[in-house]
Amino acid sequence: MTTTREPNKVLSQIEYDVIGTRPIRPDGADKVTGRAKYSADFTISGAIYGKLVRSPHAHARIISIDTSKAEAHPSVKAVVTGEDLPKTVIGADGDRPKTSGEIAADLKYLRHQIMATEKVVFGNQPVAAVAAATAHDAEEAAKLVEVKYEILPSVTEVRAAMEDDAPVLHDDIEMTEFGEKTGRKGNIADHFQNKIGDPQKGFEQADVIVEREFNTATVHQGYIEPHSCTVHWRDDDRIFIWNSCQGPFNIRDATAEVLGVPLTNVKLTPQEIGGGFGGKFEPYGEPVLALLSKKAGAPVKMWMTRTEDLEATGPSPGSYVRVKMGATKDGKIVAGEAELAFEAGAYPGSVVEAGGECVFAPYDIPNAVVDGYDVVVNKSKMAAYRAPGATNAEFASETVVDELAQKLDIDPIEFRLMNAAKEGTRKVDGTSFPRIGLVEVLEALKDHDHWKSPIEGDNVARGFACAYWMNAGLQSAVNLAVNSDGRVSLTEGSPDIGGSRASISMQAAEILGIPSEDILPSVVDTDSIGFTFGTGGSRTTFATGYAAIEAAKDVKQQMIERAALIWGVAPESVQMDKGNIHAGNGAELKMTFKELAAEMNDTGGAITGRGSVNPSGVGAAFAGLIVDIHADPETGKVQILRATIAQDAGKAIHPSYVEGQLQGGTAQGIGWGLNEEYFMSDEGRMANSSFLDYRMPTALDLPMIDTVIVEVANPGHPFGVRGVGEVNIAPPPAAIANALSRSLGVRMERLPMNPNTVMETMWANNGSSNGS
Amino acid sequence: MPTKSYVQTNINGESVEFLAEPRQSLLEVLRDTLQLTGAKEGCNDGNCGACTVKMDGRIVCSCLVFGVEAEGADIETIEGMASPEGLHPLQTAFLENAALQCGICTPGFLMASKALLDHNPNPTEGQIRWWLANNLCRCTGYDKIVRAVMDAAQKMQA
Predict the structure, then answer these.
(1) In degrees rounded to 5, what are phi and psi of residue A4?
(2) Above pLDDT 90, what percent of chain A?
(3) Which of A38, A222, A657 is nearest residue B40 as measured by Cβ atoms?
(4) Order of strands, edge to edge, in the sheet holding B5-11?
(5) Is residue A122 over pLDDT 90?
(6) What is the distance between the alpha carbons of residues A228 and A154, in angstroms, rounded to a whole number?
(7) Which residues of chain A neighbour B107 with C-beta distances below 8 Å?
(8) 3-class state of residue A599 by DSSP
């Protein structure tokens, strides 16, 4: 195997001292020596071990739970059931406080999901839990809990769940439509619509119209570290949690709400996190372990098996998406129509609204309508997964856009450029874009050697797709403390999943004019830093970085004032530049950052700075992917031969970790496109809940992934940062599908495009092309 | 009747003794009994490679080996890779090439990569990909890992 080695390219505008360099990450040495402590590595004296008792049925009424045999096990210290969770709800309507942000699950449902009462609504749902002296004893004792069920028919697919005669999960779900209650009971929790212009008139203007229906399978984030935690309900009624999660404050708040205790009774100390991708924002075991800990009077530790994690934490929704688009013969897209139905899992609240925002966002379409449906099915409650909703939606729309370009005989990138959204373009949800970098991304790829290189070989073809994701802002806090040797301690509340200690330290260092190695970052517990929303939504380098900039500016101002005090001059006459402090025009009053730091303790004590932000200037993200494939017409197997992804980073703080995000997202998108899928049995259970059968890409499945970092500064961030974590997952399925249409002449309408799907699509077309 | 067996083994060049229940995996013993938590449990069924260690010259998933099977064995774990002189060239290459994001799979990749370079000091890209195909990484897309192994191989030969 040989892969083209395209050097990574950074299109930079402004030169900085620290930003744009590639220092070794501060947590690196611990992570290559095995010393870094992840959640399951945490130990505390006196710990006992928890195990959840889970339902073998996807949908069943709980008739009885008998815990007596488990309680009689000599090693068992505590047993709890859903009845042990409080029933009272904080807040008039049961909604969770605003601090929990995008995680909009109703508290009642969240409690039920964590440990069910009355009925179970997804396979492997917890109904009880035990704690015992060892993990093996807990596993044994969990099997002694006797639960009687009345099995109910289940429904695990979104379209089937929308049918009038489908099994109904909850008798209290009443569909809201356009924000109003309709009285319609069933599995459809919500129907929304966004509209711009006059779609009917738009289609009348179109010379070419393409309409297709797409179905995508449920997939999982596939982080390598399963969920785990240790919880101690202490004698002073504080509840200490040690876990790996994306949002320490999100899980602190949700756990407190589920347990009905004040927020700050809970303290969460985040351990190193082994991947999240959106799947580690919600509590799963934490509230249950708290109950067990209270009963047993000891800390309780638990880690999930991969099967528990796959079937019963938060995967990413399977979906149905119909897209219709029309263009004039000179290549202008004039109308769009989309219908999206997403699985929410067993409780309302899917990411269909985000999908609806993304579906047409890359294009300036004057007339469009988008309908979205949030639908409950007998699967675990869906969670976020890297640009949640974008991949489902843009697989559909990018396939249709590509087909329009084919029918009009226009180069796929050129066609996108002719219709690309720019500053001021209105989206179908009515909002318009600030400065964005889609055109620059498309141009970078159109000019790329990969796009210009010849395509050689039988059944080898090239595909292209681009994608939009909105990114997030939200709250972040950072504290800085200057040490007398001139190094600066940085505390933050953002778990570091992919190098963010580095990217945040670098922003503080740039402001202070010191090397990034002189910033010492720590991710601290929820008692020790201001509210910081979780690491997700591509927000950490943007928002926590912004807080670090504010904290560094605060330190800088105090350093100037301290120098002025020492020199006996007015602070206005003192400047700090690249780590040097000086006053006046002459060179006589001059100190380095380190020299001034050494004077701190004798001139008023340590200098500390603070930054706390909730930035509104979120920079939207765009990415584009060129992919070359070989598709075997005999077996339907698709091999990725070459991939080049370009993304607008706004400004790449640490280019290596930006490239890493682009490459990692591309790999996940390829897995979503080609292999990954929940196989559900007729009884509603996941039939492939292991990494053997839930097939994620290995090193052997992928080529090198070349990256182009485009930098169109985000005006909403001091250094122009846009988040880079997410949008890169969205283009691969459509890019591969578009390549397949050129390789085998068939248009793919189903994910994953595994050999089975490819061959079925070919046979359904009787060997004739349904592509163009 | 005792429920645990006495096991004498060698880990990272040191003689080590422990007691293990028959049902305990080597991974459990390493992590819970010996506090060598560098090997990670990602799947507990031999499909992710996060628990990779070297046992009698072969890389194994320590979740698929019983603790009692370690009797008399020579075991190398991530904790033994660096020396008092510093990091192993592979560890340095992983850091310099940003070949880790969350880092949970990194110990397994390093153990597997070291075994590869012991066996073949100058592997091709394809050979690296083949050798590392039992180790799952969900963050990097493997690009920087493969480059880091190539980089380390080159530096170790120089």
Answers:
(1) -65, 135
(2) 93
(3) A38
(4) B14-20, B5-11, B74-76, B52-55, B58-61
(5) yes
(6) 29
(7) 32, 34
(8) helix
Domain ranges of chain B: 5-78, 89-157
A432-466 pLDDT, tens digit per residue, is 999 999 999 999 999 999 999 999 999 999 999 99
Q: Please, which residues 42-61 of chain A have a Cβ atom closer than 8 Å to chain B?
A: 43
CB contact under 8 A, B21 and A275: no
Sign of the alpha-carbon torsion through A737, A727, A281, A178: negative
Please give, one letter per residue, the 3-state secondary structure of A20-40.
CCCCCCCCHHHHHHCCCCEHH
Residues forming beta bridges with residue A523, ordered by sequence position: A492
Q: What CATH fold (topology level) applies to the domain B89-157?
A: DNA polymerase; domain 1 (1.10.150)
Let me know: does A343 contact A379? Beta carbons within 8 Å.
yes
Q: Is A305 on the interface with B (CB under 8 A)?
A: yes
Residue type at A508? A
The CA-atom distances, in angstroms, between B26 and each of B51, B61, B67, B113 are 10, 9, 4, 21
Interface size between A and B, measured as CB pairs under 8 A: 192
For A602, the token pair is: 């004798």
Using CB atoms, pick whichever of B98, B104, B140 lies closest to residue A38: B104
The more confident residue out of A170 and A2 is A170
Enumerate the residues of chain B whose CB falls inside 8 A of the CB of residue A133.
Answer: none
Domain annotation for chain A: domains and CATH numbers: 1-8+430-469+619-772 (3.30.365.10), 42-150+233-298 (3.90.1170.50), 476-613 (3.30.365.10)
3-state secondary structure of A53: strand
Most A CBs within 10 Å: which of B104, B136, B145, B149, as the mutation test of the A interface? B104
Q: How far apart are CA A302 and CA A313, in angstroms?
A: 14
Check the CA dihedral B93-B99-B102-B103 and report its sign: negative
Determine the Cα angle at A47 with ends A43 and A48, to 5°: 130
As a whole number of angstroms, the distance between CA A105 and CA A346 comes to 11
CB-nearest to A34 from B43, B96, B107 is B107
CB contact under 8 A, B100 and A273: no
Q: How distant, in Å, are the alpha carbons of A170, A213, A568, A688, B107 from that of B51?
A: 42, 43, 61, 22, 8
DSSP codes joined into one string, A330-359: TS-EEEEEEEEEEEEESSS--SHHHHHHHT
- A152 pLDDT above the threshold of 90: yes
- Asked if B136 and A696 come within 8 Å (Cβ–Cβ), the reply is yes
| Eight-class DSSP state of A275 | -
Give me the sheet containing A228-233, strands edge to edge: A76-81, A126-132, A48-54, A300-303, A228-233, A239-243, A266-270
Q: What is the CA radius of gyration of chain B?
A: 16
pLDDT range class, residue A15, cuts 50, 70, 90: confident
Give the strands of the sheet with A574-577, arranged side by side.
Answer: A574-577, A580-583, A589-592
Domain B5-78, CATH homologous superfamily name and number: Beta-grasp domain (3.10.20.30)
Measured distance CA(A344)–CA(A376) in Å, rounded: 5
CA nearest A250: which of A59, A98, A143? Answer: A98
Among residues A372, A450, A435, A444, which one has the least CA distance to residue A623? A444
**pLDDT tens across A585-628, in order?**
666 899 999 999 999 999 999 999 999 999 999 999 999 999 99
In this structure, which amino acid lies at residue A336? Answer: G
Q: How many CB atoms lie within 10 A of CB B108?
A: 30
Query: In this model, does residue A360 exceed pLDDT 80?
Result: yes
- Output Rg (C-alpha) for chain A, integer angstroms: 27
DSSP lists the bridge partners of residue A613 as A476
* CA closest to B23 among chain A residues: A136
